[in-house]
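From the pipeline queue, job 12 of 40. The input is one protein chain; the requested action is below.

Action: predict structure.
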Amino acid sequence: MPSFKETYEAIKADYANGEKNFNIECDMLSEGAQVMCTMGNPGGDPFKLLIDAPLGLDGTNKGPSPLLVILSSIGACIIAMINFWAKIMDVKIEELKVFSRGHLNLGALFGIDDSKVAGYDKLEPVIRIKADASEEKINELIDKAFTHCPVITNFSGATKITPKIQIRK
């Protein structure tokens, strides 16, 4: 498996080396709102993630809701991108934590008020960082991470979602 630096240099040398496709299979389970998501893992057995809903929303509360997974994805991607850019910018991070916060009103999901966003209407990640760099360089690092974070890019509407429907008979 190549190192971060080797991967970075290979993509710098030929942008096509960065082309990747990801596929996740999500299966509805029979209990509550449970969904089992199975993802490829080049290094071994597939990763599995049980997603559910709280009890009051027809779930069994045995896994995080899709909305919590969104917040987790945002926080994890911010950390990953800060780490990537820290390596590129030669910054040593001593401590890094993201508190991924979001606000929504379930009424919008239920169609009670279609003028409201059916999802998070506010996303406010709080980043706590300690690094061996000036405040200016840390702010530049955070800016690079945010402007190159694929999760934030996708949630900002940059990628069109085009469903393909396959109806089984």
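Job complete. Residues 66-89 form the longest helix (24 residues).
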